[in-house]
Amino acid sequence: MTSDLGGRVVVLAxxxxxxxxxxxxxxxxxxxxxxxxxxxxxxxxVDGSLLAALAEDRPSCVVPLLHGAAGEDGxxxxxxxxxxxxxxxxxxxxxxxxxxKPVASAAVRAAGVAAPESVVLAATTFRxxxxxxxxxxIESSLGLPLMVKPTRGGSSLxxxxxxxxxxxxxxxxxxxxxxxxxxxxxYVAGTEVAVSVLxxxxxxxALPVVEIAPDGGFYDYGARYTAGxxxxxxxxxxxxxxxxxxxxxxxxxxxxxxxxxxxxxxxIVDAEGRPWxxxxxxxxxxxxxxxxxxxxxxxxxxxxxxxxxxxxxALAE
Length: 317
Ligand SMILES: Nc1ncnc2c1ncn2[C@@H]1O[C@H](COP(=O)(O)OP(=O)(O)O)[C@@H](O)[C@H]1O
Ligand SMILES: [Mg+2]
Fold this sequence. Notes:
The chain has about 325 residues and is of the alpha+beta class. It is about 40% helix and about 20% strand.
C-alpha cells in the first residue's frame, strides 16, 4: 500500500458531456495504473451524489479525468478548491481560458506561437446579421478551406473541414449543435502532432512528439477511439529542428496559459515546418488510443508512476 498518501485517491470520470465514454475509458486506465503502485483508488462519476461521497470518506487527492465542460472549464475544480481537496491538474482560472479555444489561441499567439487566423461567431450574431452575408464576408476574408468548430468542445465533436462555400452553412449548424459560439479558422494543411507536457519537476517539459495519421484523413471521433483507425508515429517523422519547435510551442502554451502538472497541445506542422497551435487540453485523454500515454511510454515513463508523482506534488502544493 501507498500509505504515505494518507487515504484513498478518487479518480473522477464520466460526467454528462458528449465525451462521457472517453472519460470513463481514461479514468479506468489511470485508476488501474495507480492501483499497480499499491494506491487505493475509487472511481466516482459526477452526479448529485458526488459531494456527499467526497464528504463521507474524504480522499487524500482527486484526479479529474473529465473531458468536455465542467471537467475542463474549471467549474468542478473550483468546487474541489471550495472543499479544500487537492487535485491533479490545472487550476480553475487556467482551465477557463484554455477550454475556450479563441481565448487560448490569442494568449498563445501573443507569446509568439503561430495560430490560425479566425473569426468567432455567436449564434445570436449569426441570426441577427443573417447567415448568408456573414458567411460570405468570412469566406472572402479567410479564404478556403476552413475549419469550423465549437469554441468549447472536444474529440472533434461538431468540428468539420469546409472545402467549398456550399459546405459552410452545414458545418456551422454542426458546430452550433455543440455550443452557442463557433470558431471559423483558416485550415492548416500539414502533419498533425500532439505534444504532451509534463510538469513534475522544476520546469514543464515536452514529451516526445506524437504524429497522428488518420486513415480517413481527418482525426474525427471515430479515428480517435477505434483501434487501428489511426496510425501514430512516436517520435513524429519530422526533422529534429521541427520537433524542437513543436516541443517549444507546447511548453510555451502550457506556461502562458498557466497550466499545471499535465497538458497536451494539438498542433499542425505546415509544409515549411512551422507548428500552428490549434488548442491545448487540461485533461488529456488517457484511453488506449490516446496520445498522452503513448508519449509517456516513448519517454520511458509509466502512467501510474507519473500520476502518483503528480498526486504527491498536488498534496505538497
Ligand atoms: N485550423 C485547422 N486546420 C486544420 N485542421 C484543424 C484545424 N483545427 C482543427 N483541426 C482538426 O480538427 C481536430 C479537432 O480540432 P481541435 O482544435 O484539436 O479541437 P478538439 O480536439 O477539442 O475537438 C484536430 O485534431 C485537427 O485534426
Ligand atoms: Mg484537439
